[in-house]
Request: fold
Amino acid sequence: MFEEFRKFETTLAGRPLVVETGKMAQLANGSCLIRYGETEILCTATMSDKPREGVDFFPLSVDFEEKLYSVGKIPGSFQRREGRASEKATLSARVIDRPIRPLFPKDMRNDVSVVSTIMSVDQDCLPEITAMIGVSIAISISDIPWDGPISGVSVGLVDGKFVINPTEAEREKSDMAVTVASTSELVAMIEAGANEVDDETMFDGIMFAHQENQKIVKFIQDITAEIGKEKIDFPSNDPDPEMFEAIKEFAIDDIKAALDTDDKRVRDERLKPVYEAVHEKFDEVYPDMAEKIDDCLYKTQKFVVRRWLLDEGKRVDGRGIDEIRPLSAEIDLLSRVHGSGMFTRGQTQVLSVTTLGSMADAQLLDGIDNQESKRYIHHYNFPSYSVGETRPSRGPGRREIGHGALAERALLPVIPSVEEFPYTIRVVSEVLSSNGSTSQGSVCGSTLSLMAAGVPIKAPVAGISCGLITEGDRFMTMVDIQGLEDFFGDMDFKVAGTKKGITAIQMDLKVHGLTPAIIKEALAKTHKARNYILDEVMLPVIAEPRPELSKYAPKMLTTKIDPDKIGDVIGKQGKVIQKICAECNCKIDVEEDGNVFISSTDLDDAQRALNMIETIANDPEEGAIYKGVVTRLMSFGAFVEIAPGKEGLVHISQLDVKRVDKVEDCVNVGDEVIVKVLPIDDQGRLNLSRRDALIEVEGLTPEYTPEPRAPRKGGSRGDNRNRRGGNRH
Reply:
């Protein structure tokens, strides 16, 4: 039935890599089922027959479809089916998109759809790495024009040694998680998170991964040579060269004058009459080609900017090649939030706000990996007003999700552990103005915000971007690129880190890849720049995290109880813990391992709740003093609850420093009293003394000495009932 079925095998990092073609999805332009270990993914590539009308970009879509059956889960949604892509799926799609997109023809306008369907997941074999290789194979063997193939691997640093595609256990103790994609010659993509790794180690790790990629690139090339289809022709969308030269010659001087400013608004205003003049002259010469005329104007601007940079070392705003735009930093801009910081670099401005919550506020995850929750959350918002546009907000897109994840990854290595700081932390970065590298601006603003909120981060983090212009073997890099240099340049190399080392990298390219020399230079320049930002701008504003939290932030206390006592703390149908929360005006989270987190805006309330929980979970020690509530009166004494569900008897002889003839003459139900724990009897029952507590705490003088009393026996019906309850708690 499957006459064209083929199977290709190799190994990657000691695990089998198997590719099957000609069996599934045969109507796609290219498809394969790729198996890495027990991770199995169907990868397809499809192209439309005709170009899409009215677009000035290459319409590529890359989807990473997580199927929860791949890990034996049923979706937790009401409909019990997969919904919109998770953030992890979106980030995986972006990791695949970035290295493959520059290899498509820039003048092609046919829609291309690339889909990775995750069908089985082996946690030791990352699905995003497997999918990247599978996508490369699917496009390579298809008839879609593409200048691939690529390969991708992950490299970790475990016990000081580089490891390709580390297992789940190795990833947990790795000091870096770097995904590197490569062509047969160049590094095509870098996505990194690291625990303050130095530049040299990071560079060596990237090169180590690049060398491993060459084996898989050769493997894909061999598959393509054997079964690959002939690439089809497509109608080019590039304007006619004569048309471009005519418009460039007419407008280039005016465009140079318009671009020569450090103010994006001024530049945009200067360009408007240039566009009007060009259309007035050329609309009749080239009728019904308004879009092509605009394309020629765009290309002319690109030509000017690139020639300035390569030939003259001149930047649009007049800065030096390694000069950073004017910087400023502020904290405490908002009154009632837990922490706020604003970072401004030229016309890029980001306000970051920190909110602290209880551990119950941690984000629950329902994905195909084993991460079930996260307590540090970073969100990034990019409203249209930040670039002077009027686009309505429709929620975060892929770009916002990607930039938020990059900032989160950059700061995660310095976030204190839950044992050091038992809070859920959410940072929201609001982009107020955008003219280049807002993601790294959000890293800087978020560091300020976290320190202002009193989060004891291990070290401040700053971020900066590096740009690139290439022409043949020539290249030049520039630090702190603004929007125009990003649009017309070849690279946006974003690096965040502390003074000690790198915490995150994200590299976006418009060319096929980078040489080792370019990577090394970009790492060196961004290192110097982020140290300058820390020393000259951020640390003078706030040198270290504040020692105290905002008065509006919840105060958190923690304790650990015996897991066998969790049921006693929670109580039947949650009644005990609900009572503690209501009485102490707090939130309590109890985890399966016995960790208890108590949060309240009032530290005294949190302490009261902590005392109650420890009283329930631990047998009260002889001689300890408690504040309790009288719950019942008997002829022989009063029962006092020192914690929800934890009652003891105060015998009538122990009710006061003077003789008490009638219990009701001394206390009533509902009274708050202090009591001292007496020696526990041989049946483990809780006996209390108000008399001894008054003498010890309030210094009252005893007026009589009670006679020794016989041990409690059966007593009344109420006493027996309490005894059963006391033993249980």
